[in-house]
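pinning this so it doesn't scroll away 📌
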Amino acid sequence: MRLYGLIAAIYLAMTMSPAAQAGEARSRLAEGHWVEIAVDSTGVHQLSYDELRQFGFNRPEKVNVYGYSQATSLADGPGAAVPDDIPQQLTLHAAGKLYFYGETASRVTLLADSTVTRVISPYSVESHYFLSDIDGADDMASRLYGVSSPEGDEVSGHTSLIYIEPEVINPYGYGTGWYDRSVTNDSTAVYPVYLEGFDRSWSPWLTVRTIAINAGTPQLSVSISNTMTTRTIAKSVVPVVTVTAMRAPRTMPARTSVSVSTTGKTGFVSPDWLSIIYPRENVLAGRPQMTMLYNTATAGHPVRVDNCTEVWDVTNPDKVRRMSVDGGVFAFDADMEQSWRRFVVFAPTHHDMLSPRVVGETGNQNLHAMDVPEMLVVAAHDLVDESRRFVSLHSDLDVAVVDADEVWREFGSGVKS
């Protein structure tokens, strides 16, 4: 049996808000029927009304999605604020199905024409969300966003991002330091890529991040479609990170490959991740969904997307906005806080979307409103009863024993971290 042990002696008064200490706070999980689900792919997900009925919901049309992505707690670095409790997410009901946007435990963000950044959770590859038909939910799908009278030339293309991050070797033996196989001893790593919908209006950007450990001074080579760039990795006793960016020819084939290799005396050199940023046409065609990136220069212009009926602004995956679409055309306003905006387009009645994994039913709980004890003990689920017996025998203090699973659900959207 896997033993997690007890997380001992945490003073609740140090972390509880004044409202909670006064007994005024309340978790959404305190009442109603709840089902926990998990997503391992980023994009629009769906559940049919038949599935919702199987989960115990007699009013499937009233079900909404709650929770947030695990990448949220990491996006702004350690100590960043995370949602208190489980916030409601945009939920669309159409043709006997429920639709919502779910993000995995990693997030890749475009910062500039050739620069990306990513955060990844070391705790899980999934994000967890919750389903409930509780009354009083906000009708978020009825609010439409966008510019009502767009002006300027119609936009028929967008920026697309391909991101590849193999995780094969962990030379440190802990944490998120996972990389692909080493390309030392004159070996080559080859990554097939498909630039779907490549419209060739500008030359793509290729960026490769590598890690070198005790590698001497090897020559690193990165190539795509007969275009190559080389760099010398400086000798160092500490790991050396090298980011190589290059322009690929706009005449390159849509189906191609990226090669990463080294020459010279080397220790350990491995690709960490690679990205390709390229221009793509706004054609949904037979695809279930498509992600589009725009910088603020496009704000206010009409953007046309063939074969789509839904456009969602997912720049902030925890505050998704449904855009107003008329005949496949939408327009967004400028947001100076975001240099790049991310949208997902889809046609819910024409294609099946991604499917979440069902974790199971969740009982009611309300840690927000608990009285502040003199000592708090957080125990693994299988040890809660034994912990209460132990506390009753060995402590004269006012002690509360809390199930760790309840803490993760109410304050971490269900993921054990």
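📌 and the second one:
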Amino acid sequence: MCYSFIESKDSVQTQHVFLQSLALRMQRYGKLTEENISGGTDMGKSTVYFTDFRCPVGTSQLDKLKKLCIAAGIKDIDMDGKFVAIKMHFGELGNMAFLRPNYAKVIADLCKEQGGMPFLTDCNTLYPGSRKNALEHLDCANLNGFNTTTTGCQIIIGDGLRGTDEVEVPVVNGEYCKTALIGHAIMDADIFISLSHFKGHEATGFGGALKNIGMGCGSRAGKMKQHASGKPAVNEELCRRRCAKECGSDAITYPNKKAVIDYDKCKGCGRCIGACGFDAVYNPNSSANELLDRKMAEYAQAVCHGRPHFHVALVQDISPNCDCHGENDAPILPDIGMFASFDPVALDQACADACLKATPIENSQLGEHLAKPDWHCHHDHFKDSNPNIEWQATLDQAEKIGLGTRQYELKIVK
């Protein structure tokens, strides 16, 4: 395993300390099982553990989450005296669908019980908003309930004050990204845990573990590289002027009562495509979302490769779009449950399979689409909610490069 540094960002002394830490990590984890380190790619089916949200009197969802993580093997990881990065999304201000801090505390407490030194982390956003630099990001986290009291650990913004504190990490077996720009603090950690809110997404179909890791751990420059496959265009005949308010970069204006995109400002994030209900905004590069998905999977590989990693996903409040929005639409599907695994690919596949089997909620974006007489049904809840997406490419690429497997055995935890 090899890391290269961005010379303009890191001093020689910092590089030396990091490389010493990396060497020690590799020495410590040489005896760990393949499943703990790689997710079990060469082991046939991976194991995914599941528990629903039913709680008898006297048992809380937090109790069930702890039991789930223990059953899935979190205590098999040697955390004694080691830094543990817990990657999650703190929610954009105004959004109410993000995971409560109580869930993060369960994970942090489990790490501390094993002698670990956990911290919650996320990287700054590419677009302007309440999480574009570390100061605003920490304020946002605090306003949304995340602090040392509620979570039991510190919060560190992974790519620093301006989103430029990054490490260039080689992508093992990468086809689209030979290296990935990852937040420095995240790569400094000895152990990596993802705690994900599984929901819909307007560009990637759904946001689960792989998106939380791949896109979420990328520095601002890393996010730009993932989104660089294409920028949207506008069909003026269909435009009803609904997308500008969703643009986080102020790139959309209506000079002639039709949307015009300033490509010097546009980041290519695709939020405007999800916001338009009239198919007026589209990506002229028909493979742009697929390329985004595949790059995202390779970024997740860069984060996880070569160290112990463990993954938890809560499939609840399944909003149609990302928690990066300053609002959250009604859930498209009912709450399903909690999943955990050493394999993030199998985890996402299990979550997706459970969602595809669920009955859509009538009063939702998905329900409204399916109720249209002329709707072309894809028989895929994610694609019927956001038709421009290609979600399977993420899982396909992650499996192809050896991050995990889409084949899994589901074990129920009561």
